[in-house]
Design a protein that fits this description.
- There is one protein chain.
- The two termini are 17 Å apart.
- The protein is of the alpha/beta class.
- The chain has five helices and six strands; from the N terminus they run ββαβαβαβαβα.
Length: 132
C-alpha cells in the first residue's frame, strides 16, 4: 500500500460526493490511501488573499490533486485556481467524473489533455500510479 497526500478540488455543490471519494481513498484495501487531513476551515469571510494563500499552502504539501468533475465544475473560480496552482507546482492532476453527470469541465483540463477518469477505485488508482 502506498500512502500519498491528495488535495481534493471540487465545487461546493458537489460536496455530497467528496466523502464518498475520501472513503474510497481511505479504504485499507485500496492500493493508495489518502492521509490528507480533512480541513473544514471557513475562510470565506477573510478575503480572497487569505483563501488563496491557504489553498496554495495546502496544494504545495500534496502529492496529487483530484478534481471532482460534476455538471457545473467549469463555473468555479476556486477549482480553476486550485488547478492552476497544482499545475504550477508540477503536481499530478486527476479529473474524476461524478457518475451520472455530463456537464462542463474546467477548460484547462482540456488544454492540459487531462481526461476524465471514471468514478471507481481501479481507474483512480491507475491514474495515481502515474505519479512521478
Amino acid at each position: 500500500m502506498i500512502v500519498i497526500d491528495i488535495f481534493l478540488s471540487y465545487k461546493e455543490e458537489d460536496n455530497q460526493y467528496v466523502n464518498g471519494l475520501r472513503g474510497l481513498l481511505q479504504n485499507p484495501n485500496n492500493k493508495y490511501r489518502h492521509r490528507g487531513k480533512i480541513a473544514y476551515k471557513n475562510y470565506r469571510n477573510k478575503g480572497k488573499f487569505v483563501i488563496k494563500k491557504y489553498l496554495k499552502d495546502e496544494i504545495r504539501k500534496c502529492d496529487a490533486l483530484i478534481c471532482i468533475v460534476g455538471n457545473d465544475t467549469h463555473t468555479s473560480e476556486w477549482v480553476l485556481y486550485e488547478l492552476q496552482v497544482a499545475k504550477s507546482f508540477g503536481k499530478k492532476i486527476v479529473a474524476v467524473r461524478i457518475k451520472g453527470t455530463n456537464g462542463g469541465r474546467p477548460r484547462v483540463l482540456d488544454a492540459w489533455k487531462i481526461p476524465d477518469t471514471n468514478w471507481n477505485a481501479t481507474n483512480i488508482n491507475n491514474e495515481l500510479s502515474k505519479l512521478k
